[in-house]
């Protein structure tokens, strides 16, 4: 069976590296991006099984990237988990209403993250 491919989009180098290492340790293949534009560009060439998407990023924020992912017939079925330091209920509702499958607030536990990734991949 081929490993599931996960796109990680996170502008913080340390968090991005932590996510990559953690997911790879669970046997996932990971493509990590510093921002939304390079991730969206890669989406034209490759469809991942799941996208982890930070919301607060320079250049293009995660909600704008999510809108683009969900507006394309090629990519709208990909499960997306939003990662963010914004923990208000309003922010969560906004993200979920835009089509996110889950919402993880920072700081997060790696066991919880991996459980939510597995759940999203089961649904997806």
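^ structure tokens above, recovered residues below v
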């Amino acid at each position: 069976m081929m490993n599931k491919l996960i796109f990680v989009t996170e502008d913080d180098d340390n968090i991005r590296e932590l996510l990559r290492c953690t997911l790879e340790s669970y046997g996932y293949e990971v493509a990590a991006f510093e921002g939304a534009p390079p991730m969206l560009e890669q989406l034209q060439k490759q469809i991942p099984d799941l996208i982890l998407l930070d919301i607060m990023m320079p250049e293009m924020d995660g909600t704008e990237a999510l809108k683009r992912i969900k507006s394309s017939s090629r990519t709208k079925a990909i499960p997306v988990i939003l990662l963010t330091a914004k923990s208000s209920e309003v922010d969560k509702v906004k993200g979920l209403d835009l089509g996110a499958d889950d919402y993880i607030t920072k700081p997060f536990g790696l066991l919880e993250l991996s459980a939510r990734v597995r759940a999203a991949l089961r649904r997806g």
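The chain has a mean pLDDT of 94.
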